[in-house]
Amino acid sequence: MDSSTHSIKKLYYSIGEVSKDTELKQYVLRYWETEFKQLKPSKNKAGNRTYRQKDIDLILRIKELLYNQKFTIEGARKMLSSENSSEEPVIIDQSEEKGEANLEILIKIRSELKSILEDISS
78 and 101 share a domain? Predict the structure, then answer.
């Protein structure tokens, strides 16, 4: 869910709204709370989860890592930790561009290795 998804921005979103907007089941969101310490939505007086935009952004980042980049939960957890630990301003230089290129190469290699493994096991 990006800023164009809702015409009116809200301060808090229910788990149902987040589930619908992120296309994730509610039980997946609750499970991710147990696996990712960064994901801690607050609860209202009735005990219902209330998600802020930063929580939704984090959920979308986790979804990207797990579903698109095929990280394991442990790998995604480490990636998020390393992203959060660099709180200084990000300055893109050639070494970072090379790092991004290396990451893309590693993702391709991982994909090809999985394909080979599937071929071997079938």
Answer: no
